[in-house]
Amino acid sequence: MSKQFAVIGNPIKQSRSPELHQAFAAKTGVNLTYTKRLAPLDGFTANIQEFFAQGGIGMNVTVPFKEQAFAQCQVLTERAKIAKAVNTLWMKDGILHGDNTDGQGLVEAIRALDWTLENTDILIIGAGGATRGVIYPLVQAGVKKIVIANRTLSRAEQLVADLKDAVPQAELQAIALTDLAGEFDIVINATSASLSGDALVLPEALQFKHAYEMTYGKPSTFLDQAQARGVPTSEGFGMLVGQAIESFYIWNGVKPELKDFL
């Protein structure tokens, strides 16, 4: 009998999780069925309870339910606790477990590009949930300094205050978006600027060796500017695949190779 998995969100039509997990299953010999579940905005809890009551093994969570998933879990991984959001659920001995694999997905995607993370300085633009979710895994991977730039400086400062004790081995710093300057190994765009079409301006005073855009499949002024400088760039498809692989590994105990799916 095939193991039952699903992704839950609202909207959910755009999710590529089923095709990814089916591709991983084909590669690793796991017998699974993976479906999409559209939950009403006020019906998340009932939906996941029904899924697990019917024998579901694991569930991915996408917007806007990651914080609700975090609140539902009785057992959380360290990276989920720090992210305050959960994208991977599983039931064990009647207890709901949660993890956040987004940050590890980013780490694996960057490694697959052969960009170094050890002893690097990274700039992340944006101070929302996407940034919160990746700081701990980046530092675990050896990043020594992370600067968070945000339009509203106080949000970046709050994020640094929240996370600095979780990553004592690295330096965290907050700056306003208007103060973008300095030299970095990698700049990561974690804002929705590409999705909303807002122009994100990278000033000449900001120097960087690589540029990573967390979104994918959309025009990106961020990547356009990086490419105009001749800097190696990547959009976020690798991160999407990487976080899915990490979920697949948690549930099935076997880890597909990221490079096989890029």
Report what the structure shows.
By secondary structure, the protein is of the alpha/beta class. It folds into two domains: 3-102 and 239-260, Leucine Dehydrogenase, chain A, domain 1 (Rossmann fold), CATH 3.40.50.10860; 116-231, Rossmann fold (3-Layer(aba) Sandwich). 37% of the residues lie in helices and 25% in strands. It is built from ten helices and twelve strands. The protein has helices at 17-28, 44-53, 66-72, 78-83, 102-112, 129-140, 153-163, 193-196, 221-228, 237-252; strands spanning 3-9, 32-38, 58-61, 75-76, 88-92, 95-99, 121-125, 145-150, 171-176, 182-189, 206-213, 233-234. The strands form two sheets. The chain has a six-stranded mixed sheet with strand order 2-1-3-5-6-4, with helices on both faces. It has a six-stranded parallel sheet with strand order 9-8-7-10-11-12, with helices on both faces. The longest helix is centred in the last third of the chain and has 16 residues, at 237-252. It is globular. It starts with a strand and ends in a 10-residue tail after the last helix. One of its GO terms (cellular component) is cytosol. Residues 146-173 form a coiled coil. It catalyses: shikimate + NADP(+) = 3-dehydroshikimate + NADPH + H(+).
